[in-house]
Amino acid sequence: MELFNYIAIAFSFVYSTAAIRLIGGLSAAINKNSRYVVHLLFIVIMLISIITSFWGIWAHRNLEDWKLYKFIFLLIDGALYYFIATVLVPENPNEVDSWRDHYYKNKHKLFYAILTFLVYIQLNGFVLTGEFYFGPEQYFHIISLIPIFFGLRSKNHKVHLVIACFYIITTLTMMLTVASEPGWVSQL
Predict the structure, then answer these.
(1) Contacts 24+ apart (CB under 8 A), 13-20
(2) What is the three-state SS of the chain?
(3) Average pLDDT, integer, range 62-75
(4) Which of 32-36, 99-103, 180-184 has the largest mean confidence?
(5) How far is CA 160 from the centre of its chain?
(6) Average of per-residue pLDDT across 104-111
(7) Which keywords label this protein (predicted)?
(8) Cβ–Cβ under 8 Å, residues 67 and 131
(9) Which residue has the higher pLDDT, 58 or 106?
(10) Which has more pLDDT, 83 or 121?
């Protein structure tokens, strides 16, 4: 078994656990009596992000100098997704009476996790290649900090709906353009 195939098993496991957590909570989250559209949009955003992130792992298949710290650093990606999944979907999703209340109770965890994820993305290339790169696509990450600020400060439904719509549009756009090829990360 080649090293990348061996490593890809771990990535598959971590990404799968996050996706299963989100998918497992969907039936409760779409319940007509308790659903909250902003919360549902963030579940969809995270599912799409997990898929595109795993799809991008293929870019590391030719990395020759694998070290344990690089492996662990790449696993942080999936671990952050899993953390966000646990914020969005509790262990017993059927016990949630109001997804709106759940969302606003946990919004700080969600937005701080997204902030951590954006910082992680900036460090990712440097840790893996030793080269610092700041190109046009990094401007998107800087722009993505703005909704985080508003998400942390506001409890207004319309503000959070705009934030969720911003992230769903950018996530879908990325999925259908830049991230449509396996290993898309190497093209950045």
Answers:
(1) 14/75, 14/78, 14/79, 14/81, 14/82, 15/50, 15/53, 15/54, 15/78, 15/81, 17/78, 17/82, 17/85, 18/46, 18/50, 18/78, 18/81, 18/82, 18/84, 18/85, 19/47, 19/50, 19/51, 19/85
(2) CCHHHHHHHHHHHHHHHHHHHHHHHHHHHCCCCCCCHHHHHHHHHHHHHHHHHHHHHHHHHHCCCCCHHHHHHHHHHHHHHHHHHHHHCCCCHHHCCCHHHHHHHHHHHHHHHHHHHHHHHHHHHHHHHCCCCCCHHHHHHHHCHHHHHHHHHCCCHHHHHHHHHHHHHHHHHHHHCHHHCCCHHHHC
(3) 84
(4) 99-103
(5) 17
(6) 97
(7) Membrane, Transmembrane, Transmembrane helix
(8) no
(9) 106
(10) 83
Q: What does the block give as tokens for 145?
A: 């900090």
Single-letter amino acid, residue 144: S
